[in-house]
Amino acid sequence: MESHRNDWRYQLMGLKDKVLFDKLMLMTRQELLSWLQWHDNVGAFSDHDCIRKGVPLYTKIRALTTTYQCIMREHEGWDGYLGTEYIRNRVL
Hints:
- By secondary structure, the protein is mostly helical.
- The protein has helices at residues 2-6, 8-13, 17-26, 29-39, 47-53, 60-72; strands at residues 81-82, 85-86.
- A two-stranded antiparallel sheet has the order 1-2.
- Helix 3 (17-26) runs antiparallel to helix 6.
- The longest helix has 13 residues, at 60-72.
- 16% of the residues are buried.
């Protein structure tokens, strides 16, 4: 558990709402993709995987929105919104 407390990926999962969004805004596209790959290692998030599967590359905004959705889904009581946009059930 000590390693979880010091791991930036787990620390990110402990944030929510505006604090989470603000932190994600400061991250680079590559950092966001790294978190997504760690969180879902069978997903196609890297540029290489997207090209191989013939799907569009993740922009920073798409990576940020997907990361936000993945983390906020784990928080009880999340209303499904990122600002004014409902994203809970959206396939990203």
